[in-house]
Amino acid sequence: MRRFLVAFNYLGKGEDDDLSFLTTLVNPTSLEILELNTNNFVGLLPASVSNLSTELIELSLSYNQISGEIPRWISNLKKLQAFFVAYNRFHGEIPSEIGDLIYLQELALLGNQFSGQIPISLGNLASLTKLSLRENNLQGRIPSSLGKCHNLELLDLGSNNLSGFIPSEILELSSLLEGVDLSQNHLTGFLSMEIGKLRNLGYLNLSDNKLQGQIPTSIGTCVKLEALDLNNNFQGSIPSTMNSLQGLELLVLSHNNLSGGIPGFLKDFKFLQILNLSRNNLEGAVPTGGIFSNATVVFIIGNRNLCGGVPDSGLRCRGKERKEIRGTDRFSASNLLGMGAFGSVYKGISEHDGTVFAVKVLDLSHHAVSRSFLAECAVLKNIRHRNLVKVLSACSGIDYEGNELKAIVYEYMDKGKSLYGLK
């Protein structure tokens, strides 16, 4: 018997000896593939497994309720190429003996309760192509020895308690094709310029760590990226070199300290489906067209100095809006000029030169407001009338409390001499 395949069944009694049947396998010395994944097996991995064929190339135990530690005799399975124990109840440290399995190509230990450090010996696995240790309780640093796994295509260490720097040796692995996920750890330091050497990388997720500094300009050479998530503490502007990442489908730069404007080239990303730039310090006009035409997939909340971004408004948007809104004392009742069906008008004073102006703030609880706003912008940008004051600008963005804001800034005239279109 070379294959024993009982995956995707309902086997197992929920008892500690569920796997004892492995001792009764006929002619186990010729067994090459053992698949027990996706059943209801519980209990410990019996020592009899160590007596299985030295010809065994695949051992798949994923999606069961097997517990205990991975036994050190695992190194007896000299020719093992694939070892899958994902989503069980294994605990303890990952045995360093796994590093003796020199033919191992795929190692999936995700979704367990492993603790301790990632063994340095994993760097001995020269044939390794996929390594997934995510969703455990692993601690300590990412071993630089993983940089010796020159055939590695996927590295997933997300959702652990790893700390320290990202080893530059890993960022130099040109073999990484599928992806790198180091998210939800406690990694610190700067993202090295070496990241640019991952030219064939499909996705990169470094979110929810404690990385800082600027996003390296070399990220622009990772032209095969389809998903990029850098939710961290990055500063500076969004690199112009990212213009080359035309294949992106997902871009998340939220919860950073990024400043400057939103690059206009993002509207030209034809495959981009989700764009999250929320909770930064971005400012200026939000681009129009492309993905920015669909408000349901673009997230920019929490950038208090953004404005514009309303399709077809045709109105000039200036960075001055934020100062003008502050000039109303944050829409204080003492500056209220009047109220209408769709909003309120406030008097404001420019901090810069004392110019008096008026700001009409729309009440977004009305479903027709957005449509009304677009229509009003389209009309007011062209109309001139003695009873209609000059429209200085329009602003669609986030207010000082992080809420959505749509407002029109008018030239101020005394009440009775002008109409602000309150209704």
UniProtKB/TrEMBL annotation:
It is a single-pass membrane protein. One of its GO terms (biological process) is response to other organism. GO terms for cellular component: membrane. It holds the Pfam family Pkinase. GO terms for molecular function: ATP binding; protein kinase activity. Signal peptide: none annotated. Gene3D superfamilies: Ribonuclease Inhibitor (3.80.10.10), Transferase(Phosphotransferase) domain 1 (1.10.510.10). Residues 331-423 form the Protein kinase domain. Keywords: ATP-binding, Leucine-rich repeat, Membrane, Nucleotide-binding, Repeat, Transmembrane, Transmembrane helix. It is found in: Membrane. The keyword Acetylation does not apply. ATP binds at K360. The keyword Amino-acid biosynthesis does not apply. This is Protein kinase domain-containing protein. It comes from Solanum verrucosum.
